[in-house]
Structure formats: C-alpha cells, structure tokens
Amino acid sequence: MMCLLGLASAETAWAQLPPKVQTPTNTKARSLLEKAQQQTKERDFIKAVETLNQLNQKFPSFGEAFLLKGSLLKAMGDNRGALAAYRDGLAKVPVEAIHASEYQLLGDLALSYGEYQTALEAYQKLMKVAPKAQKNLAKSQRQLLTCEFALDAMKHPVGEAPMPLPAPLNSFKFQYFPALTADNRFLLFTGRPAASSGEDLYVSRQNKDGSMGEPVPISPAINSSYNEGAGSISGDGKTLVFASCDRPKAIGNCDLYISRRTGNNWSTPVNLGLNVNSTEWDSQPSLSADGRTLYFTSTRRGGQGQEDIYVTTLQPDGNWSPAQNVGKPVNTPGKDMAPFIHASGTTLYYVTDGLVGMGGLDVFRCEKQPAGTWSEPRNLGFPLNTFENEASLFISSDNQKGFCSRSRASEEPPGGYRLSRERPVELFGFAVPPPVKARETSTYTQGRVFDANTKKPLKADVKLYDLDTDVLTQFVTSDPEYGDYTVVLNEGHHYAMYAAADKYLLKSLSFDYSNQHNFNPTALDIYLEPVRSGRSVVLNNLFFDTNKYDLKPQSRTELNRLIEFLRQYRDVQIEVSGYTDNVGAPDANLQLSQRRAQAVVEYLSGHGISVTRLRSKGYGEGHPLAANDSEAHRQLNRRIELHIL
C-alpha cells in the first residue's frame, strides 16, 4: 500500500509540470488526457496512470502522454515504470531544450538500473540541448563518463563474478563486512539474523576440509544490546576493532572500540578515545596484519568529502596517534568509505563515488609508494563493480580468495515501492584475478613460544624487520596462556624475526623470500633461553661474503637488536663465538672465525657497549651443529653465537 507521503509527492509533481503538453487534436485522445488530469486532482493516482496507459495504447505516437506518466510514476516510487515511460516518450518527441529535464531523469533512472546504453544516449542528448543554467548539469556530464567507462568495462571483464558463499554461511537476513585472519582459519562478519535484529559480530571457523563452519557469536564480552558491526581483526586473530553506535559515554554517534583476545577470552571493549574517534560518525575499521595500524571511515569536519578515510597507529606507550586524513589521491570530494588494508600492508582497497566508475560506490585499489604516499586509485572493473553501490572488499593474505557482500538480486513487485534496504545482503566469494591482487602476496609463520627449560608457554614480543631497510614491519605478542603467535611475511623480502621476553635471551630467526619460489606458510615453535651464565643463542642474521670477515650492511638489524639487548641487561658479559664449516684448511677457518667474531665485538664497542663486557673467540670447524655433508648443513655450521659468560 502506498504511503501518504508518496501520494502528496505525486500530486505536487503533477501540479508542477511545465505547461508544455500540446493538446491532442483527436477528440478521444483529448478526452483521455483530461480524464487523467481530473483523476490526479482527485488524488486517484493509480487510476490516472491506468487512463494514461489507455492513451498510450490508443495513441502511441503522442509522446507527451508517456512523459506525463513517467513523471507520475517517478513521484509514486515506481522507478522501473518511470524509466520505461520516459524512454518511450522521449523517443517520440523532438530533441529540444524543453525536454532537457526529462533527458536528465531518463539518464539517471537508466543508470540506476545499469542500463548504460540508454543512459548514455539520454545524457548525450541532454548535452546537446541543455541550457548552461540546467540544474545538476555538471553531475550529468560526469554520469556520461560513467556510462562510457562502464560500457567499455563490461566488454573487458576482470575475472569471474562473485558467487554467494555456501551454507552454513548466508543463513541470516543480512551479513556483511567479511574479514579473515591471516591463516584463513577464521571468518569474521557482521550479521543480523532478521530484519528486526540488531547488528552483532559472528565468526565462522574453517573445517579440516577447507569449508567454513556454522557461524557463532564472537563473544558475550563483545556482542551486547547495542549494535556491534563493521569489525576488523588482526592477522593473528588477537586484536579486534569494531564500530558501535549510541553506547553510554560515547564520543560521537558511532565510535570505534578495541578488544584483545587472551586464550579463548576477549577483553571488555574499550573506546579508542579522542585521538581516534570524533563527535561525528566513525566506523568501518581495517587493521593491519599486526594490529598496530588502523584505517577507518569518518564524517568528521575538515575532510575532503562527505566521508573520508583516516589512519592512526599504535604508539610505544600503548596510545593511538591522532588520526590523520589519508589525503589525496585516496580521498575525493565524494564518499570515500570501507577501507581495507591488505595483510601485506602495501595495497589499500576502498569504495568511492568520487571517481569515475560503474555508477554509485565502486571498489578501487592503490599501492603504497616508497615515500609513504599512495598511488592513483585504480577501478577494479566489472564484474567486481556494478551499477549498484559496492559495500566492501577483502582479499586473503595469499591473494587467492576475495570476499565481499552484496544485496541479493530480486524483482520489484508490481507498482515498485520496494526499498533497497529490504533486500537481503549476503556474503560473496571469488577467485582473485591478477589485476585485483595486492601488489605483494603474503604468507605467514605460526607457532608457539616456550621457556626452553620448563616448556611452559611464554608471552613474548615477536618483531619482524626488513633486512634491506632495517624497518620494523610487524610487531605482535604471543598469547600469555597458549604462547601462540602469527606473523605475516611478504614475498620478495628478506626478514629478520626476533622473539624476546623479560629475562630471556633474544631469539634470532631468518626468512629469505627475496628469490624463493616456495612461499608456503611455516610452522615454527620458539624456545627462549633464560639470561643465565652458560646459555647461548645463534645470531642468524649476521652476513659475510665467502672467506670475508667484513660485516655486510644487512647485518645492522641484528647488531642493533643485540645492542638493545645489552643495554637492557647491563650486568651481562658475553662472548661472541665464531664457527665455520669444514671447507678449506682448518687453520684458515680458525682465523676466519676469529676475525668474524672480532668484527661483531668491534661494532658493539663502537656503539657504546663497554669492551669490558665483550669477548670474541673463533672455534673454526669445531662444535658443528650438523654433519658437513650438504650445503644446507654446512650453512648451519657457518654461524656466530652469543654466549653468556
């Protein structure tokens, strides 16, 4: 049943029609037109449309009658019917300035249904006849570009169309904003089981066969009587940021909240505070893989458009930095929303209507540049983008699987009037085509941290450095109950990873993916030795050329971490021990191992560590860790160790 507001709008629209309809000379046609006008005055709008239908059937060349019907149907909410009426009517009248508004309406209606060719022709005719003062002419010029882009994009599709995810997913009325952990084991999304339900966060766990299990509420500590939606989870699944609206003591109408998981329990959510939230709407978060950089959408003042994307980072003191507008070229004068930062940290995806696309909100991608700026956004094309508003996008760390949410296709009922928000929203998946993939593919190393003596789990800081730049790229903390950790690694990089806990020796690990074709996830448990006399650890990220003892530049990351360790434990004295394999003369190997150990000591002493705390000693071929029967084993034996005296 039509609402009273719709009736009033229809009557107003009819009353405001310009007096441009030529009175038909045919008596029957004139009679039907007058009847329709009288029915409109009597507020019998459905009858008026029926009368105009008769007029259209009996006198199909009378184009103005179709335009009148289109105006009435548009005001009544039957956009599909209005589209057909305007299209038929404008095909029967001369292309004149008097019809500029109808061309504009036809173009907008056709574009809203993805009928790009019809819209293109309507906008082209509008540009020919429209007066310069035509309202929204600049917007129509932009829409014309949209039609041209879309028609070309549909001729050159990028990948296959997303498909609804299979059961037991998509069992709710609405489900959206999908997000995965780095290991693909947990799928997080916002769900509303029924139209009357509030938003809650749900998690689906991957089964052994790779399928996803039954969604369950994430935690009673998270879900509440308030709406919890648009969640983002860190790569290790231990940090959650989500949006919630109208909570007590909130800063704005919608704020961002954070919760952390210890063992199987989530902490009570905490408002991210004034450095992140504003008095306006803040939502749609996206966490970096290590949970220490946060992108989100905000309507706060001072932005470039209606909604803009902002970024904040977690500081060493545990506070988040004041949120900064990401700026151009990402943000535009339009709506810039739903950011997603890939696990690699190098590619940002988001939706915007501020750039030419398929119509409405389209998904774009841009890449981080060496200076920290972003490249020009690139439209992901058809079929990931359509004439409808796209919601959000998620690409798995390995660049293989993509996820998004979409309204389920449905036919409008007779007479129109169905609102788009009533259409169910489902989770979709797709295989990621090459142009859509993040610039860098990611994998992960995953395991647990233990005390080497007691074998009990440890809470430890696990840091990942890029050896070519000495830049900290990730910083996670192992779980204090289970000791588990997950660190994301990108292809094409050589990494040093360090695990450190209070009163334990620094553990040094190396991952070289600079030229490696095997880029599979690794399982790696870490055992930390207490800082105690007689304990030692291999320093895996010190590098020398063959038969040389000069430290290569990539060694500075390890050396600087070693300096930090010695400054933390000022009473510790160490021996730097050098070892070689058995290739070459034993005397030469002994001398080489001594010189390499001495090179490390000289670096440490040259950076403020007292020489009284340092000793170097070369052991040559002695004390091998493995038999010298393969290159892999010989590489293990060529090493520098840190030994506590």
From TrEMBL:
Where, per UniProt, does this protein localize?
A: Cell outer membrane
Q: Which UniProt keywords apply?
A: Cell outer membrane, Membrane, TPR repeat
Q: Does the keyword Ubl conjugation apply?
A: no
Q: Which domain of life is it from?
A: Bacteria
Tell me where the TPR repeats sit in this chain. Answer: 100-133
Task: Name the SMART domains on file.
Answer: TPR (SM00028)
The record's Pfam families line, in alphabetical order, gives: OmpA (PF00691), PD40 (PF07676)
**Stretches assigned to the OmpA-like domain:** 531-645
The answer, when asked if Membrane is one of the entry's keywords, is yes
Q: What is this protein called?
A: PD40 domain-containing protein
